[in-house]
Write a structure and sequence with these properties.
Helix content is 57%, strand content 17%. A hairpin with a 2-residue loop joins strand 4 and strand 5. It is globular, with a radius of gyration of 29 Å.
Length: 280
């Protein structure tokens, strides 16, 4: 029973995948266009247009995703996809090949924003350990939605015709867009200059970057730095030690242990004291 609950359990990301899988008109996608006066050859040209837009838009939308973040890119993708569904419905009603062409462009743009972004989002939000299981679970949710829509389209088509299939798909796209707003925000990435790569989580992480302007002082939990005419002094519970251009000193942590810290003293960068490494 617990295993079944674990399989059925869905969060917002799974819900987006599930509702995106509910494409009720998929089995008759060719009929949707041909009934509106689009020839079979033009249908395949529209599919080629969609693929071309997706290919050409990968790089520019990738740059935009880097600026706005993964979640916003996924939300934007769902909004654009919903617009594409509306255009498809209007194109059918108006029997307009031009609207079908615009719909292909808009749908291709939607795929640009989600391509690769979904994997990066899952990696950042759910972590390396849960990445594969989460991707597989979300894919299963999408497959389940597609199977449900494939089976149920017969009833919808019989009762409401093609218009009913498109309206049902619009409704599920609206649900996917709604759940995209409820996605967890990916962790913010703070890129700091000369950020140490291997820093122990001790009390001295607070003094990992020390600014010493003039004769100013910086106070950490158990140590502070003083800029002097002869260079600089690190003061701690174990006494003060001078540092020059490059120094290795030992200062105590909050719990009494001793950590060795390698500093680089730069006189040409606003008297900036860089911590290169911290270890026990």
């Amino acid at each position: 029973m617990k295993k079944l609950n674990r399989i059925i359990k869905m969060d917002s990301y799974d819900a987006v995948s599930f509702f995106n899988g509910l494409v009720f008109f998929a089995p008759v996608s060719l009929l949707v266009r041909t009934q509106a006066g689009v020839s079979q050859s033009m249908f395949f040209l529209l599919q080629a247009l969609l693929s071309a837009i997706t290919f050409l838009g990968e790089i520019p939308t990738g740059f935009l995703t880097d600026r706005i973040g993964y979640k916003r890119s996924l939300v934007l993708s769902q909004g654009i996809l919903l617009l594409a569904r509306f255009l498809l419905f209007v194109g059918l009603i108006c029997k307009s090949p031009v609207l079908f062409s615009v719909e292909a462009i808009v749908e291709g743009l939607s795929y640009c924003f989600v391509s690769g972004t979904d994997s990066a989002y899952v990696y950042e939000v759910y972590g390396t350990k849960n990445y594969l299981s989460k991707m597989a679970h979300a894919s299963n949710c999408g497959t389940a939605g597609f199977l449900i829509s494939t089976v149920s389209y017969v009833v919808i088509y019989h009762v409401f015709n093609i218009e009913g299939l498109l309206l049902s798909t619009i409704a599920t796209s609206m649900a996917a867009a709604f759940f995209s707003f409820k996605l967890k925000k990916e962790p913010s990435k703070v890129i700091a200059q000369k950020e140490p790569q291997n820093v122990n989580t001790t009390a001295f992480t607070e003094i990992a970057r020390v600014f010493c302007h003039g004769t100013g002082k910086y106070s950490g939990r158990s140590a502070w730095c003083e800029n002097t005419a002869s260079g600089g002094i690190i003061h701690s519970e174990h006494g003060g030690q001078h540092y020059g251009d490059t120094s290795t000193i030992c200062i105590g942590s909050a719990d009494g242990s001793r950590n060795r810290m390698v500093f680089y003293w730069s006189r040409h960068a606003s008297n900036y004291l860089h911590v290169l490494h911290i270890w026990h």
